[in-house]
């Protein structure tokens, strides 16, 4: 019986422990070093071309330059904050965050 309980506890611990990193209170803050956007509370792991590596950065605010989608582990430019859409109003201009 004790062995069965230990086995169940081990399985539950293995299933629960990986979830800790996905909780917001365990995410990295702005300026913390990162390797993947999922590590950051903001969801943006921005490449640092000067120092190498990457750091957590805030999402783009209204009228700031943005990228419409995020692919891969790190960002070149951060996506928009919640409630904003990354669009280009002119073919000659870069994408910016706007309320739609």
TrEMBL record:
Signal sequence range: 1-21
InterPro entries documented for this protein: Colipase
Species annotation: Pongo abelii (Sumatran orangutan)
UniProt-recorded name of the protein: Colipase-like protein 2
Compartments, record wording: Secreted
UniProt cross-references to PANTHER family, sorted A to Z: COLIPASE, COLIPASE-LIKE PROTEIN 2
GO molecular function: enzyme activator activity
Keyword annotations from UniProtKB, A to Z: Disulfide bond, Secreted, Signal
GO cellular component: extracellular region
GO annotation (BP), single: response to food
